[in-house]
Write a structure and sequence with these properties.
alpha+beta; five-stranded antiparallel sheet; about 15% helix; disordered C terminus; transmembrane; membrane; transmembrane helix
C-alpha cells in the first residue's frame, strides 16, 4: 500500500463523529509518480462487525481486496476506535463530464489486465485522424469585433505609420484582426515592424 494513500486515509478521521454511514468523495491520490482522480466511497461499520471481501472471508485492518474477481477497484478495511470502515476506491469516467476535449478524434481506453489503479480508463487520440481545427492560414479575427474596429480606426484602415505609437497598434491590429484588416500581413506587416526604424512586434502595445 502506498504511504501517500495511508496519509490520505488518516486525514479522514474527523468523519467518525458524523451520523451518516456512507460518504462519496472525489479526491486526487498521489499513487506512483502521478496524481490520479479517484472516486472514494466510505462505509461505516459497527466496531463489532468484521470487514469481509467478495468471497465472504474476513479481512483484517489495512488489507485490500477487489469488489469482485477482475473488477477495477480496491476496497480497504480500516479499524477505528469506535467504528470500522470500508473504503472503496474506483475509477471516474473519462468519457463524460467534459473529460474528453475532442470526442471526434479521442476515445476511452483501458488495460483491464493491470491492477488498480493501472486498469482505470484514460483518453487516447488518433494522430492519423483528420484535424478538426482551423488551418493557420485561415483569415479570422483573434480579437473581439469591437477591439478590431477601434484599432482599425486608429490606424486609418490598418495603414502603417499613422497610429502615432511607432506602429505598435498597427502591428497588433494586423496580427489579431486579419479579417477586419482584409487578411493583410506579409509585406505590409513586415513594413510596420522594420520599416523606418519603427515597430515593436505584434505584442509591443
Amino acid at each position: 500500500m502506498s504511504p501517500s494513500l495511508s496519509n490520505v486515509i488518516c486525514s479522514w478521521s474527523f468523519y467518525v463523529a458524523l451520523a451518516s454511514s456512507v460518504y462519496i468523495i472525489l479526491i486526487n491520490l498521489k499513487l506512483g509518480t502521478g496524481t490520479v482522480p479517484r472516486v472514494v466511497v466510505k462505509q461505516k461499520l459497527p466496531i463489532s462487525d468484521e470487514c469481509t471481501d467478495h468471497t465472504g472471508s474476513t479481512v483484517g485492518d489495512l488489507n485490500t481486496w477487489p469488489s469482485s474477481a477482475g473488477s477495477c477497484d480496491q476496497n480497504q478495511c480500516r479499524h477505528g476506535v469506535t467504528f470500522k470502515f470500508v473504503l472503496t476506491y474506483s475509477c471516474p469516467s473519462v468519457s463524460t463530464g467534459g473529460e474528453n476535449p475532442d470526442s471526434v478524434n479521442c476515445y476511452e481506453v483501458a488495460d483491464t489486465s493491470l491492477s488498480f489503479p493501472g486498469c482505470c480508463p484514460s483518453i487516447a487520440c488518433n494522430s492519423s485522424a483528420t484535424t478538426t481545427t482551423a488551418a493557420p492560414s485561415t483569415c479570422y479575427d483573434l480579437s473581439t469585433e469591437f477591439a478590431c474596429s477601434v484599432w482599425y480606426n486608429m490606424t486609418q484602415g490598418c495603414q502603417s505609420g499613422v497610429d502615432g505609437y511607432g506602429d505598435r497598434i498597427y502591428n497588433y491590429t494586423v496580427d489579431f484582426c486579419n479579417k477586419t484588416c482584409g487578411g493583410q500581413g506579409g509585406a505590409e506587416k513586415k513594413l510596420g515592424r522594420h520599416g523606418k526604424g519603427k515597430g515593436l512586434g505584434s505584442r509591443g502595445l
